[in-house]
Design a protein that fits this description.
Order of helices and strands: HEEHEEHHEHHHEHEHEHEHEHHEHHEEE
Strand content: 15-25%
Structural class: alpha/beta
Radius of gyration: 20 Å
Distance between the termini: 23 Å
Number of helices: 15
Shape: globular
């Protein structure tokens, strides 16, 4: 055992492993890489643009948050991989490469059977699905792509990440709509915490800027009809009118602290808690009381040994829909009480990035980790006019020099899925 490991509290009070983040990667509407993501979020840069993936001139909604000028071959994928893999897989692999490089993981030095992949997509290969149906209808069953199934199914991002690195431990895809990214991270944390693996790549990706997705979300009434990209995604603002569809992916390298220190890795932040609940209320709408979200937030704090008084900020799901934002505000007030609940800083990156659906929880976990590590809270782009129905402290300018014990990152999915990650700055000791 190294001296660093011997002098550090690598276990929690209950004997389970502490779980740290040692690497992060992201492909988002801000561009490729975590630095691009962080710069956009901290700078309140709006990454919403006119749709270019398809001709949207006949659609009611013609803006989205696409990954700009994306060419997977510029970031390490071969031409064959770029041609064969769906975009949600490409985003996942490129983000994984960035995360693994930052973490400094050499799989030649790892036990592959103790290395896991826990990665999901809310929708999966929707482009291939739409193309396959068109081919079937126009050309008949013999012309459908022989690789249609393994190209389209949502677990293929996890499968290809595992293949790329030779990781032969647990390999699963948790799919909970817009809570997917956070649920995969939370599931990986639990596996490491209880000793089922030492190391995991976890997160989520999505390729949802697609004709059938935009049409479906539009007809559901979920998307904003705003034409000005700068006034489209407006979390918690009284003028909000729906979310903006986004795409991308994010990956965290998670390790037991003991494993990370033994190989000389430098932790970025620690996942100190995870909460997961269900609303059992409605197929799309959250329970307006926010009870399920509140319980998930409380679970995440409790697992980390924190009280509400320790909470530095909330990285909200904050989709810019009327129901979501009002419900999340109600949940925070219920969690912290009226006085404190109105003071705790709350932010949403969706003002900058739109709603990346199955990737959102992972993207926001990256932002939450950087926030606590850098002692700051990012601003909420698009927010300017508070809504009396959301009586919470929405951050409109960056909070700097703001040390925190813990932040919560909330994710909510259609069907009533709630996932909350508690993220703390790394410290050798446990208070």
């Amino acid at each position: 055992m190294s001296e660093q490991v011997a002098n550090t509290q690598v276990r929690r009070a209950d004997g389970t492993h502490r779980v740290v983040i040692t690497g992060m990667g992201a492909v988002t509407p801000a561009g490729v890489g975590v630095p691009a993501l962080w710069d956009a979020v901290m700078g309140k840069r709006c990454c919403v643009r006119p749709i270019t993936h398809f001709d949207a001139s006949d659609y009611e909604v013609r803006i989205a948050a696409e990954v700009p000028d994306f060419d997977a071959t510029e970031y390490g994928l071969t031409k064959k991989e770029a041609r064969r893999f769906e975009r949600f897989v490409q985003y996942a692999l490129i983000a994984a490469d960035e995360a693994m490089a930052q973490a400094g993981v050499n799989m030649d030095d790892e036990d592959p059977t103790r290395s896991a992949v826990v990665f999901g997509a809310g929708i999966g290969g929707i482009d291939e699905l739409q193309k396959g149906f068109r081919t079937l209808d126009e050309k008949g069953p013999k012309r459908v792509n022989p690789l249609f199934i393994p190209t389209m199914i949502g677990n293929m991002a996890a499968g290809h990440i595992a293949i790329r690195y030779g990781m032969r431990g647990e390999c699963i895809d948790v799919s909970t709509a817009c809570a997917t990214g956070a649920h995969n991270i939370g599931s990986a944390v639990r596996s490491i915490r209880h000793g089922y693996c030492d190391l995991a790549l976890a997160g989520g990706s999505e390729e949802s800027v697609n004709p059938i997705c935009i049409a479906g979300f539009t007809n559901l009434g979920a998307l904003t009809h705003a034409e000005d990209p700068q006034a489209a995604s407006m979390p918690f603002d009284v003028r909000r009118s729906g979310f903006v569809a986004g795409e991308g992916g994010a990956v965290l390298v998670l390790e037991s602290l003991e494993h990370a220190l033994a190989r000389g890795a430098k932790p970025i932040a620690e996942i100190t808690g995870f909460g997961s609940t269900g609303d059992a209320y409605h197929m799309t709408a959250p329970n307006p009381t926010g009870e399920g979200i509140q319980r998930a937030m409380q679970q995440a704090l409790d697992e980390g040994g924190f009280t509400v008084a320790d909470l530095g900020h909330v990285n909200a799901h904050g989709t810019s829909t009327h129901a979501n934002d009002a419900t999340e505000a109600a949940a925070l007030i219920a969690l912290a009480g009226d006085e404190l609940g109105r003071k705790i800083p709350i932010t949403s990156v969706k003002g900058s990035l739109g709603h990346t659906l199955g990737a959102a929880g992972a993207v926001e976990a990256v932002v939450a980790a950087l926030s606590v590590a850098n002692q700051c809270v990012p601003p909420t782009a698009g927010f300017a006019q508070p809504d009396p129905e959301c009586p919470v402290n929405v951050v409109s300018e960056p909070l700097q020099n703001y040390p925190q014990k813990v932040a919560l990152s909330n994710s909510l999915g259609f069907g009533g899925h709630n996932a909350v990650l508690a993220v703390s700055p790394y410290s050798e000791s446990i208070d």
